[in-house]
Design brief:
By secondary structure, this protein is of the alpha+beta class. The chain has 5 helices and 14 strands. The chain has one domain: Ribosomal Protein S5, domain 2 (2-Layer Sandwich). 29% of the residues lie in helices and 32% in strands. Strands 1, 2, 3, 4, 5 and 6 form a 6-stranded mixed sheet that branches. A 4-stranded antiparallel sheet has the order 12-11-13-14, sandwiched between helices. It has a two-stranded antiparallel ribbon with strand order 7-10.
Length: 260
């Protein structure tokens, strides 16, 4: 629930060019990425952005292709907002927020071609299904960027099973999941007529609008706007430039984690 005192304090700080945690308007909180902490998954990664913590796991299974894409594998992305992460999250079917989170992450991965889906073809009527499951372990704002970092790192470090004699082999000498790109996202918010990057949990309570921009090295791959407020055209152009700039450091964090 919003608290007037907190909202007034945050907006007053912004009007003075400050944020509650001392960051500049377009600074991220400290970011850390750890890979491989789910040994039963083909790939996994834990990401911390400030106090926000998410984990992503990749599981690869043999399945059937989509009727309109018989020569491509499938990507299935899901997200779960665990009740232990926030008192605002409940047990039950996926919430609208969890569905939106999964869709935003999925859209960026697909649009950037992170996975080469054509290389997931096994044989006629048989392809690889790649499941990306995102779990929010602690919520303090900006789940989109943390989840995209976790999902992308998990995919880039994932082992590729073999398919032999109609069986999926997960042991022995395995290669990597065929990937072709790296995508990151940068989430911005507007409040008190100010633009900020990486809104914290308190800031998300009082923001007027949110925009998440997924980019690779040189292109915008996807965008998602949230809430009822808006952004002027020149503000969107500014934020696109910032997202492309921030992506350089985010991609370096991923490469450092996976050992490239």
């Amino acid at each position: 629930m919003k608290t007037t005192i907190t909202g007034e304090y945050i907006k007053e700080m912004l009007s003075k060019g400050l944020r509650e945690d001392g960051r500049k308007f377009f600074d991220y909180r400290p970011i850390s990425i750890i890979k491989g902490n789910l040994p039963q998954a083909e790939g996994s990664a834990e990401v911390n952005i400030g106090n926000t913590k998410v984990i992503a796991g990749v599981k690869i299974s043999a399945g059937s292709p989509m009727p309109d894409k018989p020569d491509e594998g499938n990507l299935i992305t899901g997200a779960e907002l665990l009740p232990l992460a926030s008192e605002e999250f409940d047990i039950g079917p996926p919430s609208p927020e969890a569905i939106e989170l999964a869709r935003v992450v999925d859209r960026g991965i697909r649009a950037a071609g992170v996975i080469d889906l054509k290389k997931l073809f096994i044989e006629e009527e048989k392809v690889w299904d790649t499941f990306v499951d995102i779990y929010v372990l602690n919520y303090d704002g900006n789940l989109f960027d943390a989840s995209t970092l976790a999902a992308t790192t998990a995919l880039l470090s994932a082992r590729m099973p073999r398919y032999e004699n109609e069986e999926v082999i997960r042991e022995g000498n395995l290669g990597k999941l065929p990937t072709a790109n790296i995508v990151t996202s940068s989430t911005f918010a507007t409040m008190a007529n100010k633009l900020i990057l990486d809104p914290s949990g308190n800031e998300e309570l009082f923001m007027d609008a949110r925009i998440t921009i997924a980019t690779d090295e040189s292109n915008v791959r996807a965008m998602q706007k949230g809430l009822s407020g808006g952004f002027a055209a020149n503000e969107v152009e500014q934020l696109i430039d910032l997202a492309l700039e921030k992506s350089k450091n985010l991609r370096q964090e991923i490469k450092k984690t996976i050992g490239e």
